Amino acid sequence: MAYGDGARLLADVGSLYVRFALETSRGELARQSMVRCADYADFGGALKGYMQSVSDTLVRHAAVAISNPVEGDFVRMTNYHWQFSIEQTRQDIGLDTLVVVNDFTALAAGLPHLKPAELRQVGEGAPRERSVIGLLGAGTGLGVSALIPADDGWISLGSEGGHVSFSPTDAREEQILAFARSQFPHVSAERLLSGSGIELIYRALGHAAKKAVEPLTAPEITARGLAGQSDECTETLEVFCGMLGTAAANLAVTLGAFGGVYIGGSIVPRLGQWFDASPFRRRFESKGRFSSYVAQIPTYVITAEQATFTGLAAVLDAQLKRRGQGHSMLDRILQAQADLSPAERRVADLVLARPRSILNDPISDIAKAAVVSQPTVVRFCRSLGCEGLSDFKLRLASSLTGTIPVTHTKVTGEDSAVELSDKVLGNTASAILQTRDALNRGATDRAIDLLLAARRIEFFAVGNYGIVAEDAQYKFLRFGLPANARTEPRLQQFAAEQLGSEDVVVVVSSTGRIAELNAAIDVAMARGARVIAITASQSPLAKRASVTIAIDHAEDVATQVPMISRVLYLLVIDILAVGVAMRTGGSAAVQPGPADRARRLADMVSHSQA
Predict the structure, then answer these.
(1) Rounded CA gap, 157 and 159, in Å?
(2) Which domains does the chain have, with CATH numbers?
(3) 76 in helix, strand or coil?
(4) What does the alpha-carbon distance between residue 315 and residue 30 come to, in Å, rounded to a whole number?
(5) What is the pLDDT of residues 436-447, one digit of tens each?
(6) Are 530 and 503 in contact (CB under 8 A)?
(7) What 8-state DSSP symbol labels residue 98?
(8) pLDDT digits (tens, 9 = 90+) for 416-436
(9) 379: helix, coil or strand?
(10) The pTM is what?
(11) How far is C-alpha 588 from the geometric centre of its chain's CA atoms?
(12) Which of 18, 526, 545, 563 has the fewest Cβ atoms within 10 angstroms?
């Protein structure tokens, strides 16, 4: 049955070609076309060209798979010069919906919809129902993704796992790695498990054998190797397949992929039955003490020609269903508009007009564009049931992309050690990602400027956060900057009374409401010292500090020892330390002279007044 709201446009963007198709009904593709990237100045031009060719068909919704990370609104291709704004492209083309995902994220989403005839099993093993599924495949690069069971469906995991560092497993691969290192500063798995990687392996084997090899392209090496016309080419393919087996096994044990590991990409399917007898499966099961573990996991080659389109269609269908059921963040905004204040409605209008750019914008930019205060932005987020801006951005990103959301999972007394470990690590990872999205880069830059200009740095913290101050003292003393950690309120008061206009206090406080700590800060500021606060965005401390690096992570410190927030504060200290090191070329002796400090302080005062 045809879709009632028109055909759905699907596009698969590679570094050389773009493939287009219209899905007219579930699983039915029509008007397929392939164009060269080089024939268009940008992706928008290629998309407009295809839309013109199908102008007789109603198209309101589109999904695009691209061999590139997709984070936020702006997409910059890694292996080609195209770059574009998703939201601007949607508006230019006149689409209601434009979803853009990584190509392997799309391919993963299609796996549950593939037919048995579209797969070929390599080796033994049987899949477990409702278990994680792994995916990787070599082509222009090395794509990696996974499917995670969730409720009655699946969540496709966005990943750039192809860029993990390559690790050799035998002497021959060590020689190949050494050869690759002579040409590249970092040798990733993708550097060898790709089309260009086949060529690199081929040259490396010739170098190891001290033999001049004929310059060949990856297709030529593959053709000669499969035909048995060249021992060097056949060995290259064997090495390639063995390396891929190790990469697949690493993915399997990392994910616990008992649903199977699927091999896609453009290279392996072309190897046909030769791949089945290659070292791939033998190396997959070569995991020492975990050999029996991976032997249970089946591996499949994807033979379906339209697997990416199948996955894209699934991603788009899920997106539109969520929207139709009011589950997406954009729908929640539309439904809540009548209950918002006039100022909050201005924030809502901004988000609805440019949702993807909001994912990357700091709160200061959002507030300025909506002509509201920063607290109004936070109130808007909380009106939608979110804890703050970072939580809102994560839910909005999940609505826009359909990739895995990051959530907090409650630890209970019934949890096993494994469950406890998973939840603690998962919650910490979630909080780090939220902090990454919400961190104000401008505030971080200003804090680094203050630290570089400081004659003396005092780190203030109390209670469970004292360890953060002590860690900071150690780091900055290594840079040759006079630094002290003060974790006792009375000593903080005494130290504050000795500060001057060239000094900086970095204060760490989860609530920003500790009376003694704030009193010491008042003394320091009265004496002209600058204060960098690492604290909650709406705390009294945040409002009085010279610079605030906001960390809005709530923990019940009355009933438990704060864990995640301390990790977040330690990471902020690391960011500041790395920033200081980078600005000074990594020197261990970076203490500025009086003239330098005076000039930097004058510049900062002038900037803040402007």
Answers:
(1) 6
(2) 7-101 (3.30.420.40), 115-303 (3.40.367.20), 326-401 (1.10.10.10), 439-609 (3.40.50.10490)
(3) strand
(4) 18
(5) 766 777 788 899
(6) yes
(7) E
(8) 666 667 667 767 776 777 677
(9) helix
(10) 0.54
(11) 32
(12) 526
